[in-house]
Each structure stands twice: as structure tokens, then as C-alpha cells.
Amino acid sequence: VEEISWASGIDETGRPIFNPENRPGNPADSADGERGEVVWAVPGFLGGKNWQHMAYSQRTGYFYVPANEWGMDIWNEPITYRQGAAYLGAGFTIKPLFDDHIGAMKAIDPNTMEIKFQVNNAAPLWSSAMATAGGLVFYGTPEGYIKAIDDENGEVLWQFQTGSGVVGQPITWEDEDGVQWLSVVSGWGGAVPLWGGEVAQQVAYLNQGGSVWTFRIPDALLASAE
């Protein structure tokens, strides 16, 4: 993410150096004892990058990271059990950091930590990345696209609309005839629509579904490349 508010760095033991002023307040110190002081925390608890894995290209030496630019209002509250509700002792509302995007596919040089390029996406990125020896990076978007971008500059070279949000990971394999295939699972869901606060409202229009899409390069295109 573009900023981190709750810590100022890492100490000699590898632990975060917390910013005390950016810690949510104790509910016992509030007038009604029900809610502590609300603070703004970046990133939100879903993380600048969540479970979706990044990819590494031996060709470029870059990591390709599906990141999300969001923060949250967070407050502590007394822990009370309610069947079916989150048992957290805190409340939160996740909000985007920018008006024009939340997701960002970032190419990062691990030697310098420089962001070489990023491809912004309106909705959060919840799909993993896959880098290929042919100079492509594949990933999916909640808007339903499986995309292939240039691993040097992020230019979108190909995309296909799957009809539902892509949360799964693109994979590739070669069959016994030497033909390379690409597959991805499409079907929107998961943590973002469940926990996303204001972000969840922004992506409420996305189609749900469940399907597997598989692609291959046409023989004519392969022949022309040879």
C-alpha cells in the first residue's frame, strides 16, 4: 500500500514499531463504555495483500504483487457473543484510499524495492498472479476479466470476460502433444463482499457464478510465430 499508519518501521527483533497515537482507544475510557476512540488505520485488516499469491519472473527478476489500496476506521468495543456474528472485540469500516482504484497489480524489484510499474483496477484484486517465460503475467479481476499483461511495462495484451469475478489462480500446463493451455476458475465471493464495508457496497453489482475457463493458442497463430 501507499502508506502504513499503525507502525513506523521494524525494530532489531523484526517486530513492528507501533505508533501509539494510531491505536484504537479503550472502551472503558469512553463516556458510555461502549466504543473506544475511532482511529484511521492503513492498510485495512484485509491487508495490502491478502491470501492471493504474487508471482516471480526469472526473466525480469520482478515480483508481481496483487495489492489493494484501502484503510479502515477501527474502534475497540466490549466483547459480546452473538450467534453468527464476528467475535472480535472491535468494529471497523473499510474504505478505499483513492477515488479511481482499489486494486493494483504492482511489479516490484526485490533488490531495490522500487515499483517498476502498476496496473490499477477499480475493484480489489483477489486473484493470484502467474508469470510465464514468454513475458506475460496473468491475473483475474472481480469485474470478471482474466488478463495478460506485458511483464516489462504492464500493458494489457489480452483479456477475456468470464461473466463473474475471478478469485481463483490462473494455471498453465503442457499436454502430451506439446500444446500449452491456460485455465482459471471464475466465481465472485469471499471476504471482500462479506467484510468490505464501503468497498463491499462499491462491488455489490458484480455477478456471482461458478465456472472454469480453459484457453489455448490457435494452431494458426502458433504456425505464424514459428
Order of helices and strands: EEEEEEEEEEEEEEEHHEH
Quaternary structure of the protein = single chain
**CATH class category:** Mainly Beta
* Radius of gyration of CA atoms, rounded to a whole number: 21 Å
Give the CATH superfamily. Answer: Quinoprotein alcohol dehydrogenase-like superfamily
Strand arrangement across the biggest beta sheet = 4-5-8-9
Number of domains: 1
CATH architecture: 8 Propeller
How large is the share of residues in beta strands? Answer: 35-45%
Which word captures the global form?
elongated
Describe the structure.
This protein starts with 6 loop residues before the first strand and ends with a helix. By secondary structure, it is mainly beta. The strands form 5 sheets. The protein has a 4-stranded antiparallel β-sheet with strand order 4-5-8-9, with no helix packed on it. Strands 10-11-12-13 form a 4-stranded antiparallel β-sheet, with no helix packed on it. The model has no long low-confidence stretch (mean pLDDT 91). The chain has helices at 191-195, 198-202, 219-225, and strands spanning 7-10, 16-18, 39-41, 55-56, 63-68, 70-76, 90-96, 103-109, 114-121, 130-131, 136-140, 145-150, 156-161, 171-174, 180-186, 211-216. Helix content is 8%, strand content 37%.
Write a compact overview of the structure shown:
The chain is mostly beta strands. It is 8% helix and 37% strand.
